[in-house]
Amino acid sequence: MNASAEVQPTFQVALVQMLVTGGAREENLRRAEKAIAEAARCGSQLALLPETLDLGWTHPSTFELAEPIPGGQPFARLSQAAARHGIYVCAGLTERDQEFRYNSAVLIDPTGNLLLKHRKLNELEIGHACYHQGDRLNVARTSLGTLGVMICADGYACGQVLSRSLCYMGADMILSPSAWARPASHDNTADPYGQVWREAYCPVARDFNVWFASASCVGPMTAGPWSGRNCIGCSMVVDEMGQIVLQGPYGPEAEAILYTEVHLKKRPARGTMWQAQLER
Q1: Residue 3 lies in a domain
Q2: Residue 239 is part of a domain; what is its CATH number?
Q3: Is position 5 within any domain?
Q4: Residue 188 and residue 36: Cα distance in Å, rounded?
Q5: Which of 130, 186, 212, 242 gives 202 a disulfide partner, CB atoms 3.0 to 4.6 angstroms apart?
């Protein structure tokens, strides 16, 4: 986006809390395309979808079915859906780059162009056998504001270093495709899910006046190191004051598209903000 282009300070974001079936690429992509169309029909300018929505997190099919980004079918399908419906799309996909496999996320503009690709940096140890590690962060300046992208556990890297780095890079909003999972025996009434993400997102949101949005998938994990667990949704939006403005329903069957308005405010330059804090 040209630096002089007008930024839309208020827009609607759709969090797509979709069922992801391990290894079922075609089925998952059809769900994603349908959800993108519905989000656009309901007036959203941005659709945020889960982590590794094509094959499922750490599913063994990754070794055989991961495709390039761009160039592969999963990216092409999402790109075409974004262009068809005139909407920004952020989504997690598995990626093949020669002999390497990555847990990646893309940000696509309303004409279908790839604005940003992020490869997960803070992968859980049990995911290391499935994915190689990324080596960079980036933001994209768009008509909605400056958007940063991370993936799931990137958000709670030591001291929230990755999300804070995105803030120093100018992010107005941080998007995080996720796959939040709990053991099948988890009792959400006795132990409500989400505290780990409130602790990861809310302090950074307050410190930098930045919005966070994270969309998690739902459904049983049928293979891989967490086989037997359930992805449970609870997708979340945090505003620039560190307040939870949206949280999705919990459970392996809790499919939903969740909508909220985002109101970005003009903020001081990072150096100005921190100088003011030092002078207190």
Answers
A1: no
A2: 3.60.110.10
A3: no
A4: 29
A5: 242
Q: Can you give the residue range of the structural domain that contains 235?
A: 10-278
Does 51 participate in catalysis according to the annotation?
yes
pLDDT in tens, 250-261: 999 999 999 999
Query: Considering the domain boundaries, does residue 38 fall inside one?
Result: yes
Give SS3 for 259. strand
Q: Active site residue: 51, 95, 123, 255, which one? A: 51
For residue 77, give the 3-state DSSP assignment. helix
Tokens at 75, concatenated: 């990216």
Model confidence over 173-213: pLDDT tens digits? 999 999 999 999 999 999 999 999 999 999 999 999 999 99
Total domain count, the chain:
1
CA angle, 134 then 238 then 30, to 5°: 60
Enumerate residues 6+ apart whose C-beta is below 8 A from 15.
Answer: 48, 213, 214, 215, 235, 237, 246, 248, 257, 258, 259, 260
Catalytic pick among 90, 120, 231, 255: 120
Catalytic residue status for 26: no
In a domain, 2, yes or no: no
Query: What CA–CA distance (Å, rounded) separates 158 from 149?
Result: 17
Of the listed 90, 130, 152, 234, which one is catalytic? 152
CB 50 within 8 A of CB 91: yes
Whether 261 is a known active-site residue: answer: no
